[in-house]
Amino acid sequence: MVASYGGEASKEGGRNVLDGLNQALDYIEGHLDQPIEGSELARIACTSEYHFRRLFSALAGMPLSEYIRRRRLTVAGAEVIGGAEPLLDIAVRHGYGSGEAFARAFRAVHGVGPGEARRTGTALRSQPRMSFRLIVEGNSTMRYRIVEKQAFTLAGHKARVPLVHEGMNPAIVAFVRGVGQEALDRLGHLSDQEPRGIVNVSDNLPGDRAEGSELDYWVGVVTGAEPPAGLDAIAVPAGAWAVFESSGPFPEALQHLWRDVFTQWFPANPYRSRPGPEISSTRLSADGTQADAELWIPVERVPA
């Protein structure tokens, strides 16, 4: 295992990443009346589609698909209000196969159907065009290390739960309580490598990371041994991991670290996320309100 350490990255690296994202946004604007593929946007941004969707969602505060839908219906709204063109023609131009589908989507964004909007001149909602820029504030640094890790096994218990961005996740709380402390103690003895002890793992997340979407959540251990029968287990291939440290209120500090990794660290460093489980190792205070944590994110170096 080889690790390298770093602090805050340069502005120039972040500017290059954001240039690619902004070029992809330009492409969206020029193709709102055509199908838009995430793979093409990722190609323009010079990254993987997996990383592009994650980075966009973190920076924009909404999934890529939602931004495209809102921009299309913003443009369509102006056409509905400002012209006499048949509504079905507007619907088809913006990718809707029927007037009914267009009306449903239009109402979801604007709160009123297109026919009523045209008749009454109702004020519509607008999704402004986005652009991304790098803002450097203060002199704080984000502590991280890059770890080259051999293949290992993740063993433990897993459940399918909804994604919650802020605050406690009731489904996770109920799941961990159901596993029980005795089972967790037995599980902890299987840990034989970093990150050590009981870990919490998120896997099989949707690319856009929308609130309420589902993921596999694990309580488990990282091990090189064959796990006993009765445990869930997956083989994790060798690769690089970015490891971040956090201390503060639980779970807010860890959730904010997750956000900051994608909104601050990735845009300023020559790495991108890759598919794989995301692992956190958390040491709670006696009253459960504070925590020291490590966050392990699978990464790969951006090709030169």
Cα radius of gyration in angstroms: 23 Å
Instruction: Specify the structural class.
Output: alpha+beta
Measured by DSSP, the beta-strand proportion falls in 15-25%
Order of helices and strands: EHHHHHHHEEHHEEEEHEEE
- How many alpha or pi helices? 10
Mean pLDDT: 85
Outline: elongated
* End-to-end Cα distance: 24 Å
Biggest β-sheet strands, sense, barrel: 10 strands, antiparallel
Low-pLDDT sequence parts: 1-15
Provide the helix percentage.
25-40%
The counted number of beta strands is: 10
Describe the model.
- The model is unreliable at 1-15 (pLDDT under 50).
- 38% of the residues lie in helices and 25% in strands.
- It is of the alpha+beta class and 304 residues long.
- Strands 1, 2, 3, 4, 5, 6, 7, 8, 9 and 10 form a ten-stranded antiparallel beta sheet that branches.
- The chain has helices at 11-30, 38-44, 49-60, 64-82, 87-93, 99-110, 114-120, 170-179, 181-188, 252-265, and strands at 2-6, 144-149, 152-162, 199-203, 214-223, 232-236, 239-249, 271-273, 278-284, 290-301.
Q: Could you name the key traits of this structure?
A:
disordered N terminus; 10 helices; 304 residues; 38% helix; ten-stranded antiparallel sheet; alpha+beta
Explain briefly what this protein structure is.
The protein has 304 residues and is of the alpha+beta class. It is 38% helix and 25% strand. Strands 1, 2, 3, 4, 5, 6, 7, 8, 9 and 10 form a ten-stranded antiparallel β-sheet that branches.
